[in-house]
Design brief:
Chain lengths: 115, 112
């Protein structure tokens, strides 16, 4: 099964600044997914990142706020821009894991606190 | 739009009993329903997947059923153990490789 290395694991940031989260997968994957999990809530998809094309954003999420890079088939970054306290959440990346027969593997998450 | 709903109330259960969790969906039948376990501070971990043309799947002490008439999936943990205490998430995809849509999750607490 795929292994995802996500970093940083946590950060405390000042409002108005930006944070870039990285995910590295140990195998090549077509799509990578970025989720947000607000305190006490379930996961909400932010965007789907395809290599070689623009990311596809879900309703309520925009590229200016959450720019995504996908330079190759094993790596992606999500930037949380111009942060406010409302952005305090856990951010997770995910890939479909063929080894698990269509289950998905998740990174360990980035716990972001904006002060 | 598709909605996935889980019982938001925590499920407290005695060790050794069977925990049963419910996942209901609206609108079209998802191609795949998946169940994940999430521990505090960790990412979800895949447990089981059931396809729309399947009635039941098993893996060790876990069992998942899928009823397209009721638009419902049930997730069973038999012979529950305190180590099973976690939040369990139901999610659907329309096809392999598509994005996941999650339910709100159900927290399970197994008491010794």
């Amino acid at each position: 099964s795929a292994v995802i290395s996500q970093k940083p694991s946590r950060d405390i940031c000042q409002r108005g600044t930006s944070l870039t989260i990285q995910c590295q997968v140990d195998s090549q994957v077509t799509m990578m997914f970025w989720y947000r999990q607000q305190p006490g809530q379930s996961l909400t998809l932010i965007a789907t990142a395809n290599q070689g094309s623009e990311a596809t954003y879900e309703s309520g999420f925009v590229i200016d706020k959450f720019p995504i890079s996908r330079p190759n088939l094993t790596f992606s970054t999500l930037t949380v821009s111009n942060m406010s306290p409302e952005d305090s959440s856990i951010y997770l990346c995910s890939v479909e894991d063929q080894g698990r027969r269509y289950g998905y593997t998740f990174g360990s998450g980035t716990r972001l606190t904006v002060v | 739009s598709q909605k996935i709903e889980q019982n938001s109330e925590a499920l407290n259960i005695q060790e050794g009993k069977t925990a049963t969790l419910t996942c209901n969906y609206t609108n079209y039948s998802p191609a795949y329903l998946q169940w994940y376990r999430q521990d505090p501070g960790r990412g979800p971990v895949f447990l089981l997947l059931i396809r729309e043309n399947e009635k039941e799947k098993r893996k060790e002490r876990l069992k998942v059923t899928f009823d397209t008439t009721l638009k419902q999936s049930l997730f069973h943990i038999t012979a529950s153990q305190p180590a099973d205490s976690a939040t369990y998430l139901c999610a659907r995809t329309k096809a392999a490789g598509n994005k996941l849509t999650f339910g709100g999750g159900t927290r399970v607490l197994v008491k010794p």
